[in-house]
Amino acid sequence: xxxxxxxxxxxxxxxxxxxxxxxxxxxxxxxxxxxxxxxxxxxxxxxxxxxxxxxxxxxxxxxxxxxxxxxxxxxxxxxxxxxxxxxxxxxxxxxxxxxxxxxxxxxxxxxxxxxxxx
Length: 118
What we know:
Blueprint: H1 2-20, H2 22-25, E1 33-38, E2 40-43, E3 50-53, E4 56-57, H3 58-69, E5 75-83, E6 86-94, H4 104-110
Antiparallel strand pairs: 1-6, 2-3, 4-6, 5-6
């Protein structure tokens, strides 16, 4: 019974956090935005969230960032080297118009109407 009591406050915390950070993750139209991609394997959707960081080639991270951005990225920093040209994550800057594909839950609630005007 004790475990059930901890799940509710934790779920509430993440729900509140997602709404509080809404303005922080949606850039004004016409401006660049930054994001991070972390390579992992496992299932983040399961109740146990059984995931492990993966060491991947920098090309894979750069291609994924370009795909997420929708055009070539403006700038990047590969993070946590784990071998020759292999890393755990990438921070990148995208100057394409922000799209809702990264945050489908928020976009499902608000659509593009929540994007600030320039």
